[in-house]
C-alpha cells in the first residue's frame, strides 16, 4: 500500500491560495511518486487553515456536508491521481428536517475513492479547546469500514487519536 501525506502550512482564511499551494506541491511530485498511490491524506482543516477562535471567525469558510470546495478538490484529485483522498474541512450541516435549531457545525474529514465518490464523512469526536468555540462533537464515533484497495480502515482527527489516559 502506498500512502502520501500532503503536508503544507495553510494560511488561516486564505482558502484559494491554500488550494493553489496544495496543487503546486502535487505538481512538483514526480510521476513515479504519484504512480500507484493508494491514499493521499491532507491535514485537518486543510484549506481553511486551523485555529479559528469563534463561530463568527470561521463562518465564511464553512462548507456544506461533502459538497464544498474541499470535497470538490478531493474528488478532482482522486480522479487525477487514481487514488483515495482524505481532506479535513469545516462542515456546516442543515438539520432543519429533524430539529428546529439549524445548522450544526463540525470539524470534519471526507474520504473520496478513486472514482470521486464519497466513501465517508467523519466528524471529529474529541474536540481540542479551540474547536469547542465553534464545532460540535461528532456523535457517531470513529469511522471504521472496508475501503476497496485499502482494506479495513479507521479514521480520526487530531485529538481523536490521543488516549484519554495520556
> What is the highest CATH level, the class?
Alpha Beta
Provide the low-confidence segments as ranges. Answer: none
In the CATH scheme, what's the topology name?
Nitrilase/N-carbamoyl-D-aminoacid amidohydrolase
* Mean of all residue-level pLDDT scores: 90
Rg, please?
A: 16 Å
Order of helices and strands: EHHEHEHEEEEE
Total domains, how many?
Answer: 1
CATH architecture assignment: 4-Layer Sandwich
- The helix fraction, in percent, is 10-25%
Corresponding CATH superfamily? Carbon-nitrogen hydrolase
The profile of the biggest β sheet is:
6 strands, mixed
Q: Determine the structural class based on helices, strands and strand pairing.
A: alpha/beta
The number of helices is 4
Number of strands: 8
Distance between the first and last residues' Cα: 30 Å
Overall geometry comes to globular
Strand content: 25-35%
InterPro entries: C-N_Hydrolase, C-N_Hydrolase_sf, Nta1
Pfam family, one: CN_hydrolase
Protein name: CN hydrolase domain-containing protein
Domain CN hydrolase: 1-166
Short description:
By secondary structure, the protein is an alpha/beta fold. The protein has helices spanning 15-28, 31-34, 55-58, 69-81; strands spanning 3-5, 39-41, 63-64, 84-93, 104-112, 118-123, 143-147, 151-155.
